[in-house]
Amino acid sequence: MKITSTTLSAVAAATLVLGLSACSKDSAGAPGQQAAGGVGGVGVDLPRADSDFWNAYSGYIPTKAKDLGLTLTATTNSTNDVQKLIGNVDNLTAQGAKALVIAPQDTGAIGPKLDELAGKGIPVISVDTRPDAGKFYMVVRADNRAYGTKACEFLGEKLGGKGKVIEFQGALSSINGRDRSEAFKECMTKKFPAITVFEEPTEWEGTKAQAALETRLSTDPDIKGVYMQAGGVFLDPTLQVLKQRGLLVPPSDPKHIFIVSNDGIAQEFDAIRKGEIDATVSQPADLYAEFGLYWAKQAMSGVTPKVGPTDHGSTVIEVPGGFEDQIPAPLVTKDNVDDPALWGNKK
Predict the structure, then answer these.
(1) Which CATH architecture has domain 144-282?
(2) Is pTM, for the whole model, over 0.85?
(3) Suppose 148 and one of 86, 158, 183, 271 were both cysteines; which one would form an S-S bond, judging by CB atoms 3.0 to 4.6 Å apart?
(4) 154 and 213 in contact (C-beta within 8 Å)?
């Protein structure tokens, strides 16, 4: 594979870990401990407000908290700024939050704050991203390396193993950006070495993806594939560029550029139905909200996660710093885009 741009550059508190105990969705915690609804609220920080995916996630939080019998101390938004996240976390704990659900986009810089919270006995659940350092109770995320692999295999097959592809990489300061980028590259190198991949760093910014696509189509008008690592921010800019260039055509047209995305928002599903894009990996915003809060409740009840399959169709693994609940994330194409079980189809 030819690369033509820049390449990839334990529990929240030990007092909560008293031994291995089963952790099904209905488990009530250790005997004699106060129920989660009575030990204080959960503080939630949202990572950004400029993404359809994260706005959907935000919408699920109040309902899922109510379903679980949890009180929300407050909800803040760190606008993709780790320093603001650290300040928000301080404010949430000052307001009495006994557990935190966050989604740090810079997975390296949050480590010291996690260790500080662990020392105070405040469990942290990280949704969507796994911190590179620091102690946490649980990470709730899908297997992001599988995202990159699925995207590679889909485009490789659609292009018949040859041609040119542009990849909008997420921020490489984020484990998600690194996982997706590294897996995509490894798969392309191994399975489709005749495909040229143009790696375009974007920092999860749609404007950067748009500029990269415009430039690349000018220098390489024969591009036949696009991998968008975040449909919530890359979809509209990408479709705008293709429409302006007369390339927004159905798959039956020889000019069609095959596009695979990540997120699973309703807008992506509509684009698949219209033949504007071809696939996406559905990252379950509803389950991220539900099980981020669920694990906060488990943590406040003193439950230690159990490694292995869960009763909600996922698998818990032990990772440096804590545990990870790996939520399923299916590939969505025209064949299954109308599946009512997909969160992007739920009203």
Answers:
(1) 3-Layer(aba) Sandwich (3.40)
(2) no
(3) 183
(4) no
